[in-house]
């Protein structure tokens, strides 16, 4: 019997992105284990935890590709880590599977993207918010490319809509002191707040907004919501009590969404991780990436990246995210847009949806293409 | 950056022999929405695209329709593998606003286009500003003539005459030079001081 094809799993379970990293790692491991049960000996995982250091990511990628015989890596949460290992992946002509929402402006032939880019999250989110809440948002962000680029784009969208930015403030990645930010928001009284903060800073901010809303009902979520494009179920556990209830998040998937064909997967996840475990969009996108990778390897009988890519381009796969297609031009997945509102049971209620949107990472088509209208589901 | 740079439907001409670099480049240009043509023969003025990406390793003087040191009529990106100063100089003299190193790194393509485009716009702006300044310098003698005229006819000091010219120009929303020309020609007279 031939040796199993090795798939690298490269996620950090420490640092400000720890919760996301753990969710991604769980999803990738879980997918490999599940497929292993029906396709024994086809693939096996190779784990490296880079410990939230960019150097750790590079060393991990080199170990996987050069020493451990991997040709595929599922990994990285931040754009910094992804950019750091791409040259290594290119050098070994491997394939990186990137599964988190990000700020776009990338389409590397050696990367498959199953996370959403702005035309799949921020643009439809603003299409929903502006007519309902107004065109005067406050932009809060982490001092990092995600915060900078998302807020730049938000500013462009607001200018185009004839609105204005109520304020814009950045916090260092590990900063959890949000008093100045909250004071500024209280003074400026925006229509809504775009939250591009990360991890603990974001949790502290949501908690402080909750306190502000108790002091002044004008800041309650139904009047001045805090919205994000990367807050998922995997981070709600880090928020005390009901502090984030009513706030909104855009994602390609929410746990327990009506109509999703994931009942079987749900059961397996509960069996593996316990009944409290929810399937976040990040878990779902990582699981889908692993599934695509394994199914492609199974179909072509090899893990050669070029052949895997060609297989992906010619196939629409049934995944937890629905039928999934990878665009040959951009290497990105077409993804549905859902808007969720945080409920009291640690999950999201879906309040608006749009069917799969082709990724346009450089927003090249935005000025010529008419935008489809949003379908309201509740 | 106020607007996301958008290159969709722009025509890019890739002056380079087809190889693995151009394959990668064409893929990236297409996904940015550009209409891409690839050629390895002299470009004619009539066929000028919206942006030129030219092989600066192999490029010769007749490849581009504008002369060395002349202003490029469109944004130019130089593709460069060598580090030889003569080839860098060739790229510069051809008006390259950005250099794309070979082998082409896909993540360098969009920034190079944005940079070359911004440089080109900046040059056009500078040229326009220069033209404007040259015009003003050219009309300096007329301004002096108008000031002398005001000093004689209105008994103003030089400073007062210039201030009056400037005020009139502001009120008429014209340049000082244009008002001076009109005064010298007798087609405009300053309102009497009141």
Description:
The complex is a heterodimer of chains A (378) and B (194). Chain A is built from eleven helices and 15 strands. Chain A has helices at residues 18-38, 54-67, 79-91, 122-133, 145-160, 179-188, 199-215, 233-236, 263-273, 281-300, 305-313, and strands at residues 5-10, 43-48, 72-75, 95-98, 111-113, 137-142, 167-171, 192-196, 226-228, 248-251, 316-319, 322-325, 335-342, 348-357, 375-376. In chain A, helix 3 links the parallel strand 3 and strand 4 (95-98). Chain A is globular. Chain B has 194 residues and is of the alpha/beta class. Chain B has two domains: 11-127, Rossmann fold, CATH 3.40.50; 139-185, Winged helix-like DNA-binding domain superfamily/Winged helix DNA-binding domain (Arc Repressor Mutant, subunit A), CATH 1.10.10.10. The longest helix of chain B has 30 residues, at 109-138.
Helix tally of chain B? 6
Q: Order of strands in the sheet with the most strands of chain A?
A: 7-6-8-9-10-13-14-15
Helix content of chain B: 40-55%
Approximate shape of chain B: elongated
Q: Which fold name is given in CATH as the topology of the largest domain in chain B?
A: Rossmann fold
Portion in beta strands of chain A: 15-25%
Give the CATH superfamily of the largest domain in chain A.
Response regulator
Average pLDDT, all residues of chain A: 93
Mean pLDDT across residues of chain B: 92
C-alpha Rg of chain B (nearest Å)? 25 Å
Q: Tell me the CATH superfamily of the largest domain in chain B.
A: Response regulator
Largest interface: chains, residues each = A-B, 22 and 18 residues
CATH-assigned fold name of the largest domain in chain A: Rossmann fold
